[in-house]
Specification:
6 helices, flat, mainly alpha
Length: 110
């Protein structure tokens, strides 16, 4: 890590921006309780954990470890904007199908 503590600071900032707590993130990712607290003391994450956290927070791993100041590497808006019309239409169709299947599941449960 290029600067001690930068990973934890950025992790904390991104978790707060997502309106989550460390405990919520740990639960949602299947980590043990206080697993993320280790980074408070300057410990570095494993490569796998770095990727998991960056995907969960939708930021680049390079941003989390201080190698980049750009945090929007996984921006869904940016990705969607870069699709051509046919790809956007296909994505819309997939989303529509998914929503309908989720609504059907919900109705079956009720």
């Amino acid at each position: 890590m290029s600067e001690q503590g930068i990973f934890y600071k950025r992790l904390k900032k991104e978790i707060q921006l997502k309106r989550r707590t460390f405990n919520q993130v740990e639960r949602e990712l299947g980590y043990s309780r206080n697993a993320l607290n280790n980074y408070k003391h300057g410990n570095d994450p494993s490569g796998i954990r770095l990727v998991e956290l960056s995907e969960y927070l939708m930021v680049s791993p390079a941003y989390l470890v201080g190698k980049s100041n750009k945090s929007d590497a996984f921006s869904p808006k940016k990705t969607f904007k870069n699709l051509n019309f046919a790809q956007k239409r296909e994505l819309y169709s997939l989303c529509e199908s998914w929503v309908m299947s989720e609504l059907c599941k919900k109705n079956d449960v009720d």
